[in-house]
Amino acid sequence: MADTLTSGAFVEFERVQKSYDGETLVVKDLNLSLPKGEFLTMLGPSGSGKTTCLMMLAGFETATHGDIRLDGVSINNIPPHKRGIGMVFQNYALFPHMTVAENLSFPLEVRKMGKAEREQKVQRALDMVQMGAFGGRRPSQLSGGQQQRIALARALVFEAELVLMDEPLGALDKQLREHMQFEIKRIADNLGITVVYVTHDQTEALTMSDRVAVFNDGRIQQLAPPDELYEAPQNSFVAQFIGENNTLEGVVKEIKGGTCIVQLDGGEVIDAKPVNVTQPGERTRVSIRPERVEYNKNRLQEGAHTLKAEVLEFIYMGDIFRTRLRVAGNDEFIIKTRNAPDVERLKPGQQIEIGWLPEDCRALDAN
Amino acid sequence: MTDATHDTTARGKPGPMLAADGTPLKRSLARALRMQKIRALLLIAPLLLFVLVTFIAPIADMLFRSVENDIVANTLPDTVEELASWDGASGETPSEAVYQALYFDLFIAAEAKEHTKLGTRLNYEQTGISSLFRSTGRNLDDLGKDYQKTLKKIDKSWDDGAFWYALMSGEGGEEVLESHRLQYMQLIGQSPRSIISRFWCVIRGIFYKACPTALEDIDLNFTPSAEAAQMLPATVAAYSDFAVFTVLADGDVVAEEDPWEAVYAAFAQDLNAPGTVEKIQSYSGPGQAELLAVTENLADLPAPDFKTTFLDIDKDWGKIENWQTIKIYSPKYTSGYFLNSVDLMKTPEGIDARPENQRIYLKLFKRTLFMSLVITGSCILLGYPVAWILANLPARKANLLMILVLLPFWTSLLVRTSAWKIMLQQQGVINDTLVWLGLVADGNRLVMINNQFGTIVAMTHILLPFMILPMYSVMQTIPPTYLRAAKSLGATNWTAFWRVYFPQTVPGIGAGSILVFILSIGYYITPEIVGGTTGTFISNRIAYHISSSLNWGLAAALGTILLGVVLLLYWAYDRIVGIDNVKLG
C-alpha cells in the first residue's frame, strides 16, 4: 500500500510474468504504470504478449508471477466481475439475444440498479455514442461501426474508471476506423477515463494515445508518447515497427559530441546520431525516415556526407511522391517527397545524390 | 443503340419490362431458369421416386386403412341393402328378406372363401362373429340339398346341369349377369381394369407378355334368358352367381356343371312366390314339361324359411348385437377404428364410451406422452453438461470424448437394450453391487426393469446422443468472449451463464428436444424389451395389431393419431419457440 501511495499510479504492473506451458514466458518481467486519465496503447506484432497483459489486467488470465495493482489495490486475486473494469472486445461480444438497450442495461442490472435509473443511464450512454434511436434493435441488425459504438457504450455505461479495449476497430473498414479512432479518443477525453488500448495498427496507436508501449517478445521495447516514438525510436525494432523506415548496415567509426561517423558495408561514410551504440568498432544499423531524406543539394547542410543513388522506381501518390532508390547496395531505399511545384520528379535510371541531417539518422543496435 | 427496355421506360408507358429481344422479361427469365430447374429436379428424381414409392405411398395407404371399411358392403351387398330399412334400436331381429339376402350373399362368399375374412373383420367389433360366420358357411348347403332331393324325385332332369343350363340360358338377360359378375369381382376385391392399367397391359404385351384377360372381359358362355328371369327371378340370380363363379373362379364350363344348392333354394322360393305358377303355365320355352310337373307337386316344395334355417345353424343369428354390428359397420367408410383408438365405440344409439375394463388406448397415449417428456427432460439434464464440456475442451480431448458419446450410436440398438436388461434386472449388475455394498437387502432387491423406470433409463441412454449433438453444435458457435464480456460487465459466473450463455443454447436444446421427443414417442424396440406391462408405449400396441391381432385398421387409426399428435406438437413448438430457432448444426 505504502509503495503505491508514493508512486501515485492508477494501474500498475510490477515484475509481472506469464507463462502458459511452464516452459516459455509470454510476458517477461513487465513493469508499467499509468496515471489516472491516461490513454495508453499497447502496440506490437501478434504474439508479443500485449493481449495477454490486457487479459491479466481484466482478470481472465492470472499472472504467473508479479503484482498487478488497480488504484493501489492488488487485484491478482479479485475475480473479473468484481474488478469493475469496462472492456471492449475485438468482435464486440454484444449479446445476440438481447436488444441494444438490454445489452447496455445488463451491467446495471447485475449491479441491482433501479429501473428508472437504468433507463436513464442507458439512454445517456447511447446518446453519447450517437446511437440514441437504436435501443430497440438487435445487434445483428446493426452495421459493424454501429455495433462498435454499442460495445463502447456498454463498457462505459456503468461508469468504469478503467476501460480496456482489445483491438476494437480491427473489423472495420479504413474510413470508419479512422472516424472511430477520433470518436473513441474524444469520448475518453470527455469522460476522463483511463484507457488501455491494444492494437497492432501503428497509425491507430499514434493518433489516439497519450503514450504507446511497444511490445515485442514479451517485453516493452519502448514506452513513450507517439511523437517521441516515431522520431526517436530507442532501438531498431521500434524504428522498424513504427512507420516506414530505411535501414543501412555498417560499423561505427567514430563517436564525437553527439554525432558519429558510420562506415557502411559498401565503404561509404555517413553522419548519424548515436542512440544505442557506445564505442567505435561496434556494428550498427542506421535508420532514416523516408521523408527526412533530401536530394536537393541546396537544402543540405554544409559538409554533410552524401551518398550516390540510382532511381529505380518513381510512384505518384497524389500528395506525395514515393521513389525507390538503390543506395549502398540496398534496393529498397525509399524516399518520400511532398508534391510541390518546385520539386523535381525523378525518372528511373537517373543518378542522384542524397543526404540528410545527422540528427535524423539514428545509429541503432544491429539486431 | 436503343434497346426495347429503354424505349418503354423512356416513353414512360407502364407495361411489362421487356428483354433485349422484345419478349417480356419475366418470360425470358423463366426460360433461362427452366433448364436449371429441370436439371435440379432430375437430380433429386431418384430419391423422390424412391421415397414416393417405398415410403409415402405405403404410409398413405396405411393411413387410408384407418377409415376404409368396404369389406361388409362388398361381401354382403344385398344384405346391407336390405338392412338399411331395419331399425337396430327396435329390439327385434331383422325381417325374413334380410335373412334371405344374407343366405345368397353368404353362399357365394362361402364358395369364394371370403366369408371368414368378413367374420374376422367383424370380430374386432363383436367377439364371436368370426366363428358364427365360419360355422354358417359350412352349413349353408343343407337347405338347398333337401329341395334338390325332392325335385329329383319329381323328375331326374332337375339333377342335371345341362338341363338347368338349357332352362336358364337364352337372350336378353345380360344385365342381370353383368351385375352379378361385378358383385363377384367386388367380393374378391377386384375392380374393372382402368384405362391406365389397360394401357400398361398393352405396353407389357409388346415387351414382355400379355396380361391375363381381365375378369370383366372373360366370355362366360352363358346369357340368362329374359323370360326365365321374369318368371323365376331368384333362381336366375342364384344361377348367375353360380355361372360367374364357375367360369371366373374355377375355369369350368357352365353347361357341364351341376348348379349350387342355393339355386334349388331360390327355385323353391320362386315357385312359392305369388303368380309364378301362372307364369309357368303360359311358358313355352325349354323345360316346359318339367316345370309344369313341378307345379303339380308344389306341396312337396314349401317356401324356404331362411330365418329358421339360420337360427337352426346357429342361434346367434337371432342375437340383435350381431345384426347391430353388421349394420353399424356396413358403410364403406367408418370412424369406428378412430373411436376405438380413443376408447369410444359406435352403438345403434350413437357414440358411447367403452366399458371401464376395455379402456386402454387413452391411458397408453397419456403414458407415451408423459414418458417421452420425462425421457426428453432427463436427456437435457444429462446431455447439457456433456455438450458444454465437449464444446469447451481442446479439440483433441473433445474428439476423444465425442467418440464416447457416439459409441452407443455404433452399437446395435438391440445390444444396448439387452445390456440394460442385464444391468437392471433383479439378479443384475446394479442390484448385485448394491447388495454387496450392503445398501440393499438380498431379499429386497430393487425392481428396475420391466417397468417405467427401466424404459426411461434405457431410452434416455439410447437417445442421449440425439440431444448432445445438436446442443454441442450450437454451443460450439458461441464464442467464449460472451462469457468474458458478461463477467467484465460485473456478472457472477452463474449470472453470466444463466443470462448470457444459456439463452444462446436454447436453439440447441430445442432441436435436441424435438428430436428426442419425436423419436421416443414412436419408439418400439426398447419399451418392448424392457418395458414389461407398465412401461410399454402406444407403438407396442400398434405393432401388436399389425402383427398379432391383424387389426390393421385399428393399428392405422392409432398410428394416424400418433402422427397427428406429433404434427400438432411440432406446430405448437413452431408457434412458441419458432422452428427457425432450431439449429441442428
Key attributes of the depicted protein:
heterodimer, A: 367 residues, alpha+beta, Rossmann fold, OB fold (Dihydrolipoamide Acetyltransferase, E2P), 2 domains, six-stranded mixed sheet, five-stranded mixed β-barrel, 25% helix, disordered N terminus, B: 585 residues, mainly alpha, MetI-like fold, 3 domains, two-stranded antiparallel ribbon, elongated
Word description of this protein:
The complex is a heterodimer of chains A (367) and B (585). In chain A, helix 3 packs parallel to helix 5. In chain A, 40% of the residues are buried. In chain A, the strands form four sheets. Chain A has a six-stranded mixed beta sheet with strand order 6-7-8-3-9-10, with helices on both faces. In chain A, strands 11-12-13-19-14 form a five-stranded mixed barrel. In chain A, strands 2-1-4-5 form a four-stranded antiparallel beta sheet, with helices on one face. Chain A is 25% helix and 32% strand. Chain B is mostly helical and 585 residues long. Chain B folds into three domains: 61 residues, no CATH class; 259 residues, no CATH class; 221 residues, MetI-like fold (Orthogonal Bundle). Chain B contains 29 helices and two strands. In chain B, strand 1 and strand 2 form a beta hairpin. At the A-B interface, helix 3 of A face helix 25 and helix 26 of B.
Write a brief caption for the model.
Chain A is of the alpha+beta class and 367 residues long.
